[in-house]
Structures are given as structure tokens and as C-alpha cells.
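During the reporting period the student researcher (J.K.) took over the structure-prediction task from the postdoctoral fellow and processed the backlog of single-chain submissions. One of the processed entries is reproduced below for the supervisory committee.
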Amino acid sequence: MPPMPSCWPSRTPGTHSPSAEATYAYLTNTARHEGRVPDKVSTIIAALRAGIGENQMMADVCKAGVEGPRR
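J.K. obtained the following C-alpha cells:
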């Protein structure tokens, strides 16, 4: 998956930033990612947000969805 424009989650513990929201929107909105994010990833991210809620942990999940695994 090609990298997304710079809009990464906040690193402040216990908070999330508008950039985390932009990352979530990118991962779940086909009009924004133009098919570069697989449908299954979009569905999983949306389901996780419904279960986890809007918090730093979800922001980190979104960031990992864009950056990919650490090496």
C-alpha cells in the first residue's frame, strides 16, 4: 500500500489529535484513499473503532494501518 500523506496521530498519552481523525478517515473512506486501502482493512479499522472507542490506542492502530509493521 502506498504511503499516505503526513497526518499521524498524536504521541501525547491519553489524547488523539485531528491528524488521528484524518488517518482514520483515510483508512475507512474510499473517496479519500481511492482504492489504495483494501476493503477488509477499512472494515476492520471501523470495527475496532466501534469497540475500542476514540482514544490513543485507536490512534496508534490507525497509524500502524498506514505505516505497516515495524522492522
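The committee noted the following: The two ends are 16 Å apart (CA to CA).
J.K. will present the remaining backlog at the next meeting.
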